């Protein structure tokens, strides 16, 4: 009898351990160039191939979350003309559009190829009403290019990477994870740091780092490997230094504030990612984000969410 109890206990413990191993959440972070020049218009193809091979169940993108009222309060009159237009479109629909959640959910269950023009119009209008910019743009892309996607490179991550990945894997809805609550203060600090760098020598360091980053990218870009090059750890570290002002030798007030706002934005982005990853049923999650954020996101995830496995394009 004791042997039987021991055997059953061992089986149960082993099963639980295997189950925990199998369900460990993963986040694969791909750094992007946002929009690339025409001369390297196919730069996203290798990254798309990697993303499809990873076969994620959920896609997270650098777009403000619909319920992030602080970010949208800034963006409605902020740096981006696109976000301004989208905000006021969304705002106008609050009074003119009769939103139906059940109707939207029903349409999102249909196969992409079975969506009619009227279906797509209702979906895009619904996402605009919800202030969900990521999915609004995704379905506008389908309206324009069809379910096969654009035959010509759009040169932007939203089209050449995110949309094509979602269409390939039949993922109907994207997850937003960006945070721009302190973007105004960050850009002010950036300008202040740049001005101060002209007299204390830091501008020279900035210029050298940018030149090094540019020169190192020339050959990979010409060979169609810009996307993979940008995701090399050395490239990611350079971009992180430039964006976080950690290259400076003189800790001025503006540069210190710039570092603070950059780190805080990355931290909030990680909270946005992890809160969704841990609450959904998906194991394999992919994050598509500007390459300058990758190091910051990786560090914050490792520090605050050690139970989430992190993967980068550069395995070293």
Key attributes of the depicted protein:
316 residues; alpha/beta; 5-stranded parallel sheet; 14 helices; 5 strands; 61% helix; 9% strand; globular; DUF5694
Polypeptide structure, described:
The chain has 316 residues and is an alpha/beta fold. The protein has one domain (26-312). It has helices at residues 2-22, 45-54, 69-75, 81-96, 101-108, 117-129, 133-145, 157-168, 183-200, 202-222, 226-230, 233-244, 253-279, 294-304, and strands at residues 26-32, 58-64, 175-178, 284-290, 309-312. A 5-stranded parallel β-sheet has the order 3-2-4-1-5, sandwiched between helices. Helix 2 (45-54) packs parallel to helix 8, helix 7 (133-145) packs across helix 8 and helix 9 runs antiparallel to helix 13. The longest helix is centred in the last third of the chain and has 27 residues, at 253-279. The radius of gyration is 22 Å and the shape is globular. The model is unreliable at 17-21 (pLDDT under 50).
């Amino acid at each position: 009898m004791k042997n039987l109890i021991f055997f059953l206990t061992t089986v149960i413990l082993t099963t639980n351990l295997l189950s925990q191993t199998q369900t460990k959440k993963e986040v694969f972070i791909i750094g992007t160039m946002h929009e690339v020049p025409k001369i390297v218009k196919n730069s996203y193809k290798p990254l798309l191939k990697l993303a499809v091979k990873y076969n994620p169940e959920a896609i997270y993108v650098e777009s403000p979350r619909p319920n992030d009222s602080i970010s949208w309060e800034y963006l409605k009159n902020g740096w981006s003309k696109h976000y301004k237009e989208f905000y006021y479109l969304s705002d106008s629909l609050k009074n003119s559009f009769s939103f139906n959640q059940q109707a939207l959910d029903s349409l999102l269950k249909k196969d992409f190829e079975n969506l009619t023009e009227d279906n797509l119009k209702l979906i895009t209008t619904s996402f605009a009403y919800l202030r969900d910019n990521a999915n609004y743009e995704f379905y506008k892309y389908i309206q324009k290019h069809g379910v096969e996607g654009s035959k010509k490179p759009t040169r932007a991550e939203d089209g050449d990477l995110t949309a094509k990945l979602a269409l390939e894997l039949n993922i109907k809805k994207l997850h937003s994870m960006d945070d721009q609550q302190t973007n105004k203060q960050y850009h002010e600090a950036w300008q202040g740091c740049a001005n101060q760098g002209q007299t204390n020598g830091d501008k020279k360091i900035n210029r050298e780092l940018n030149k090094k980053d540019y020169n190192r990218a020339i050959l990979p870009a010409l060979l169609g490997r810009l996307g993979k090059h940008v995701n090399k750890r050395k490239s990611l570290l350079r971009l992180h230094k430039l964006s976080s002002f950690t290259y400076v030798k003189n800790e001025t007030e503006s540069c210190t504030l710039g570092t603070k706002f950059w780190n805080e934005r990355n931290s909030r982005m990680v909270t946005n990612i992890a809160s969704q990853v841990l609450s959904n049923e998906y194991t394999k999650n992919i994050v598509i984000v500007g390459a300058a954020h990758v190091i910051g996101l990786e560090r914050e995830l490792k520090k605050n969410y050690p139970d989430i496995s992190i993967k980068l394009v550069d395995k070293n």
